[in-house]
Amino acid sequence: MKPLNTFFLFAGLAAIASSCVQRSSSPDGSAPKPTDTVPSKMVLIPAGTFKMGTNDPAYTDAIPIHTVSLDSFWMDEHEVTNAEYERFVAATGYKTVAEQPLNPADFPGAPAESLVPGSGVFTPPSHPVALDDPMQWWKYVAGANWRHPHGPQSSVKDRQNDPAVHISYTDAAAYAAWAGKRLPTEAEWEYAARAGKEQQPFYWGTELKPGGKWMANIYQGNFPDGNTGEDGFLELAPVKTFPANAYGLYDMDGNVWEWCGDFYRPDYYKVSPSRNPKGPTDSFDPEEPGAIKRVQRGGSFLCSDQYCIRYRPGSRGKGEINSASNNLGFRCVKDIAAISQTR
């Protein structure tokens, strides 16, 4: 039996876990590749050294600050969009975890009608609530997936430049392999997000709203029932809506959480290598010991200083590898050497 993740429940069971095996990308089992060999919409991130993590006691799993040196790499300038994910699906026939039924063996005793494809959807209550129970604003919605972010009646047809959401780690890794890329390491992600700015309150600088302008798509108002939408968006924003950082990267903060390739352990920073760290060799989360988790970074449209403050520099997120929600997406990176070999 799989460990239960209590974050999204449907009919009394944990429905964001799945035992489904990743589907083959093509009938013969091979992975079709896109025709492009030169990175499209990617930014060259220069090699360098930075201070990773934070000493803020609010982020116990991001302590201590430690020096990391990285080789240069390419990174997608924005999160993978619905249009881009559609091209992958059209080429491969891939079905995301959220589109596949749950395995009854993982949930003994659960009624068969409950084991339906779906995903977690932010569903704000109509009144203020205590912030100690996420189930008051998260619902497992049958039929919710990247094509239908709020359920079967919703569509991304007119939202092609929105980030693709309801993307599990498994789904993101499949796309990256097809595209000839990979998911960023956690160190690469933070280095790129900081873009040369060391240990400041926000990735973009020292003020939340420099010049009175919102710099990222995060939550304004009373969480979770009173989103004012002051930044222009109640939920997702199209990519490249907010200013790019000094490296030319968009939405490294807010909008959607982004998967990294690293396994999650809260103690990893104490032993992390100083050069090109790739994360621990296994996963461990004391809050859910049996789950296999990977790192997530950047926060989402639901982050604010009132709740989910992990949009701040150095902070970390985490997720079970087959979990998904409508604030979870990704972007990819590509090694310099891999690019040279394709030319």
TrEMBL record:
Pfam families: FGE-sulfatase (PF03781)
InterPro entries: CTDL_fold, Sulfatase_Mod_Factor_Kinase, SUMF_dom, SUMF_sf
GO molecular function: formylglycine-generating oxidase activity
Domain Sulfatase-modifying factor enzyme-like: 41-334
Protein name (Swiss-Prot/TrEMBL): SUMF1/EgtB/PvdO family nonheme iron enzyme
Record lineage: Bacteria, Pseudomonadati, Bacteroidota, Sphingobacteriia, Sphingobacteriales
